[in-house]
Specification:
Helix content: over 70%
Order of helices and strands: HHHH
Strand content: under 5%
Number of strands: 0
Shape: elongated
Structural class: mainly alpha
Number of domains: 1
Largest sheet: none
Distance between the termini: 83 Å
Length: 213
């Protein structure tokens, strides 16, 4: 919405100066290029402040910083998926305890994985169908909203065009009337000047006739 102090005096649907005067189009394009080349020191007051993402999640914030810096993703740690034995011969109690804890973690991971696969086989198909149905409904709602916005946009542009055509015709009629009135005033002034010249001539002739009488 424009501020109340803004003055909008353009009727783009009615004005055809760019078509009548092609050199104006070049000037407009040059002005647009010049304005686009300017880099303001401060953003426009209407520009919302920059949003800082993931302020409460250090992991996601760090990942976003990594992507912005275009750094490579660190390689995955595959050691947790292996069952290495102690490297020392013979292994210490701590080495064997660490290897045993790793084996137990792997066993628990495989157990949870088997449980998830069982749940997926039992309920996955229906859950996927429901998810697809929800996505289809969302897509339909979005398409419906898009069509409504398109219709609203067309209606707004139609109303704007009709109002600009109406106002443009009124302005053209007023401008034509103003031009005719100015022309009439000039003609009256020229007629007055001619009458004054004729009166001066008649006064001079009257004076000459009075002198000869």
């Amino acid at each position: 919405m424009a501020d109340q102090d803004d003055v909008l005096d353009s009727l783009p649907y009615y004005d055809d100066d760019l078509q009548k005067y092609p050199f104006l189009k070049d000037k407009v394009e040059q002005e647009i290029a010049r304005e686009l080349g300017k880099v303001p020191a401060t953003p426009h007051p209407r520009v919302p402040p920059e949003v800082e993402l993931f302020t409460n999640n250090a992991i996601l914030k760090g990942e976003l910083a990594r992507i912005e810096a275009k750094e490579q993703f660190p390689p995955l740690d595959s050691l947790r998926y292996q069952l290495p034995a102690p490297t020392s011969k013979p292994g210490t109690d701590d080495d064997w305890k660490a290897a045993l804890d790793n084996a137990r973690a792997q066993l628990e991971h495989q157990r949870i994985r088997q449980t998830n696969l069982t749940l997926l086989q039992t309920y996955g198909a229906n859950a996927w169908r429901i998810h697809n149905y929800q996505l289809e409904q969302q897509a339909k709602n979005i398409d419906k909203t898009l069509e409504e916005l398109k219709e609203l946009t067309v209606e707004v542009n139609r109303d704007r065009k009709n109002s600009q055509d109406r106002f443009g015709k009124e302005l053209t009629a007023l401008e034509t009337r103003w031009t005719n009135l100015i022309s009439n005033v000039l003609q009256i002034e020229m007629a007055n000047v001619a009458l004054e010249v004729e009166l001066d001539r008649l006064h001079k002739k009257e004076s000459e006739l009075a002198d000869t009488a």
